[in-house]
Design a protein that fits this description.
Order of helices and strands: EEHEEHHHEHHHEHEHEHEHEHEHHEEEEE
Distance between the termini: 13 Å
Radius of gyration: 20 Å
Length: 406
């Protein structure tokens, strides 16, 4: 392959499957759904979500930061801490000017905004917290991460809706290729499960309404799917140039060898029905990696469990990839982590390649007959040398990462 060789030396995850890479990966490879009725949404028309279990910000980050940071930042800091430990990097000893942070999110801290809007209405303007803006601004995701770890290199937050996490990893890869830095904390984080945001999604008709059986609500590619289930969490990767990772004797989980991005330029929320925008991004990632359509052995799909997205993506995969790759969507387990989805799913793709195991698509009982693709409904174990992770977002955003074995 001719693509730029970027090593993944650290992985950190906070997902509905658990806090940490181990619990998250175990939940996904076991195909264990996490969706449940959410008491915080009791007054909403749709009350299902996928929450991070047992996340105690005060215990994990200390009382001061628990009070001063929105959950979307809290999740990222915990994931980044794990990723750095996994990579064997100590912020106390590095040259912070050579360390970048590139993270993605779709909406910053809507929970903080909603809470303070309630304060405004109940107690007046002078009761609003002075921390409102620094807690909810999207750029604070990377800003607070840099403060936490002393990373004074390039510092960016990207917003491409539900492709944000993947776009962040692709952008980080480009920074490393240009030698703007020597290591990057890259990924995404999201905490959008709030009454107002979920009401908006429900009014769009985007959410599953399977409240009688919430664990089965997120069912990508299934003929009986009726919408997505919102999730929360974060995924952070430590990326380095492979030559540098080898020089310091780091363990390499896998390599990001290609990246492609595109726009559907079609509709505010719906994907192009033929998946032409996503196809452009897939072909760009393959070209960047020096790979052919038949080289893809595993395809981690965006697979939201919505009728339009899944069908358009399946049509694109059948038309574009010639090797009949094993397709999965881990959203059957985690739900849709929105701006964090692309980062978390990139991590799962790296782990699939590293361990030679394609996770199942949870809740897939009957493949939509209009989809002529090979979707894993059970864990499939086999060596994987090359895989793609696909992400899409409102506005027609597409981002594809090519992952190769270490």
């Amino acid at each position: 392959m001719t693509g730029i060789d970027i090593a993944v030396t650290g992985i950190g995850l906070v997902t509905p499957g658990g806090i940490g890479t181990g619990p998250s990966w175990e939940a996904v490879r076991a195909g264990r759904p996490t969706a449940a009725v959410d008491p915080a949404l009791r007054d909403n028309s749709v009350r299902i979500s996928c929450r991070v279990p047992g996340f105690d910000a005060e215990r994990l980050l200390g009382a001061r930061r628990a009070l001063r940071l929105d959950p979307f930042v809290q999740f990222a800091l915990v994931a980044a801490r794990e990723a750095l430990a996994d990579a064997g990097l100590d912020p106390r000893t590095w040259d912070g000017a050579r360390v970048g942070v590139v993270l993605g999110c779709a909406d910053g801290g809507p929970g903080t905004v909603e809470a303070q809007h309630h304060v405004l209405g109940e107690r007046g303007a002078k009761a609003v917290s002075p921390l409102l803006l620094p807690m909810q601004l999207p750029n604070m995701l990377a800003g607070q991460t840099a403060i936490e770890f002393g990373a004074t290199g390039p510092n960016l937050v990207v917003a491409t809706a539900c492709a944000s996490g993947a776009t962040a990893i692709g952008t980080a890869r480009d920074l490393l290729a240009l030698h703007r830095c020597d290591a990057v904390l890259a990924g995404g984080s999201e905490a959008m499960i709030t009454p107002l945001v979920m009401a908006g999604f429900a009014q769009m008709g985007a959410l599953s309404r399977r409240e009688d059986d919430p664990a089965a609500a997120s069912r990508p590619f299934d003929a009986d799917r009726d919408g997505f289930v919102a999730g929360e969490g974060a995924g952070v990767l430590v990326l380095e140039r492979a030559v540098d990772a080898r020089a310091r004797g780091a363990h390499v989980h896998g390599r990001i060898v290609g990246y492609g991005a595109s726009a559907d330029a079609h509709h505010m929320t719906s994907p192009h029905p033929d998946g032409t925008g996503a196809e452009t991004a897939v072909r760009a990632a393959l070209a960047d990696a020096g790979a052919a359509p038949g080289d893809v052995e595993h395809f981690n799909a965006h697979g939201t469990s919505t009728p339009l997205n899944d069908l358009a993506e399946a049509v694109m995969v059948r038309r574009t990839l010639t090797g009949d790759p094993v397709v999965t969507s881990t959203k059957g387990v985690t739900g849709h982590l929105l701006g964090a989805a692309g980062a978390v799913e990139a991590a799962f793709t790296v782990l699939a390649v590293e361990h030679g195991l394609v996770p199942p698509t949870a809740n897939l009982h009957t493949l939509d007959p209009r989809m002529d693709i090979q979707v894993a409904d059970t864990a499939a174990r086999s060596p994987i040398d090359f895989a793609l992770s696909n992400s899409c977002g409102f506005g027609g955003q597409n981002a594809v990462l090519a992952v190769a074995a270490a």
